[in-house]
Amino acid sequence: MVEPSLIRAAREGDREALITLLREIETHVYRTAYYLVGNEQDAMDAAQEALIRIYTKIGSYEEKAQFKTWVQRIVTNICIDKFRRSKPTVSIEEHEMVFEGKESVEGEVMAAYAAKDIREAIDRLPEHHRAVVVLRYLQDFSYNEIADSLDLPLNTVKSYLFRARQQLQVLLRDYQKGGVRG
Amino acid sequence: MNCQEVMEYMQRELDGDLSVFESVKAHEHIRQCADCAAMYERLKRLSAELENLPKVTPPISLVDAILPKLDEIDRVNAASADAGATDLPGSAGTTARTSPRRRNSRFSLRILSGVVAAGVVAGVFLVMNDPDRPRDSISGNFAATESSSSGSSGPMLMMDASTDASGAQKRFGAAMPADIAEAPAQGTGADSSADSLKQPARVPSGDGLTDSGASPGSGSGTGSTEGENVMSPPAVLDGAGDRIGVAEPGERTEDDVQLVITGFVDQYGDELVESVSPDGSYTAVFADSRVVIYDQDGNARFEGEARQGSIAAMGWSEDGTYFRYEIRLEDGTEEIYRIDPAAGTETKE
Fold it and tell me: What are the boundaries of each domain within chain A?
């Protein structure tokens, strides 16, 4: 939780306060970016872009909105734009083949699979579903906070989250049935 | 309770959104329904795994990494606050460009710093997005601008910032070569700027644009200078006579592409040009050898391929659905590319 006084000082043009503020949020920004774009390099780029935008736009932040949702809105917007450019939708079939190949050949440790499978499954969600999941689980946001961040109605947030979990659950069950885990 | 209702209850329970009463009802059902019980287990496990996803942290400090950029932004912000200049009253095209985002964008800032640092005169231009705008109103605006700017030699500076005009004159007037500084004040905006242009041969003229099919008959065809058509100081030259900015008139063309060329070249040959679509929904910026299309919120919507050579022309179609630009290669040949921001495509013509 960022100190309100720090945010206020930053808004009023205190550069030191603004830099301190950015340091406090950079991990949160990066974490969202990482799970939205799916790799470290793009996440670094997106997070830096978001921090620069926060730096230049801090004056436009209004205190009636929560600071953390304002920040997450900026980073998710940047990441979703990146998706549109660099990540054309992959058909499920293609994706599945890649999965099987990797898993049988590399023979990775079982323990590593859980997180990796989940990450890959998250990657396959439509972008807004993925964003809802990331904000819910990586930022611990409430339905309302997610709705504010993504500019979506509350009911849409719920239905995205529920559908995303249902879809993830099906994907992960398929992996298990394939004898990969569990 | 049916299974579908229970599914929603289970989902909400994972988020701590279920009342005790609702929870009791859901569990009653789950105890009796094997399918729902299995689903409940899977969802709970999934949710636990999602909660345990690695809390990744950046490999290096991101703030440290961007500090140089932030410093640059500050430097240029200070300069632009100082150097703010008049905006054209009533000019929708220009006003649309002076949103806070534009002043803060690192491209504008970079250019500004380059210009100031190099001691190169920065005159900026008026982008005419509306070809139908009556000339008289523009001239009138110019006259008003001039007379309000303290009546001195009054170089007509239109920076991407709008603070005080006298500050701009102080800053830029001193560095400005006399012939350019005074030229705009000698006549109406259109004529004097045309005089002061003295465009070097490499400046894309109507001919170059005609090749592209985008601007048939402009320039030579109309028998008028670009300055006249644009009715504003469309270009300012630096000491070396390089083109800094050229604005192509808003003529109707065969395929209704209105070419507007604006921008700067600083002494390092580093270029930047930008153009706002007629409806204001996109801004195309040429920087670092590529075109990037931004939407109104400043989000990059499309990033073009890097190009060798210099930008010679750019412009939006009248309906704002696509953007074209012309690259002049070192050997003098030209390439024209077309970007459709909605489709996210860039094609060579």
Answer: 4-86, 92-177
Q: In this predicted complex, what is the ipTM?
A: 0.82
Cα distance from A70 to chain B (closest Cα, Å)? Answer: 14
pLDDT in tens, A24-78: 999 999 999 999 998 899 999 999 999 999 999 999 998 888 999 999 999 999 9
Chain B within 8 Å of A90 (Cβ-Cβ)? no
CA atoms within 13 A on the CB side of B69: 18
**Which residue, chain included where needed, has tokens 């920087």?**
B287
Question: Measured between alpha carbons, how far is B327 from A43 in angstroms, rounded to an integer?
Answer: 32
For chain B, strand residue ranges (E) read 257-259, 264-265, 271-276, 282-287, 290-295, 300-303, 310-317, 323-328, 334-340, 345-348
Phi, psi of B302 (to 5 degrees): -155, 140
- Specify the fold of A92-177: Arc Repressor Mutant, subunit A (1.10.10)
Closest chain B CA to residue A21: B63
Q: What is the pTM of this model?
A: 0.48
Query: Between residues 32 and 91 of chain B, which touch chain A (CB distance below 8 Å)?
Result: 39, 42-43, 46-47, 49-59, 61-63, 65-67, 69-70, 73-74
CATH of domain A4-86: 1.10.1740.10
Name B286's Cβ contacts closer than 8 Å, sequence gap at least 6. B263, B271, B272, B273, B274, B311, B314, B325
Residue in A56, A115, A162 nearest the CB of B104: A56
Cβ pair B63:A78 closer than 8 A = no
Query: Would A4-86 and A92-177 be classified into the same CATH topology?
Result: no
Pairing of strands B282-287, B345-348: unpaired
Residue A39: DSSP 8-state: S
Interface test with B, best of A40, A162, A175 (most B CBs within 10 A): A162
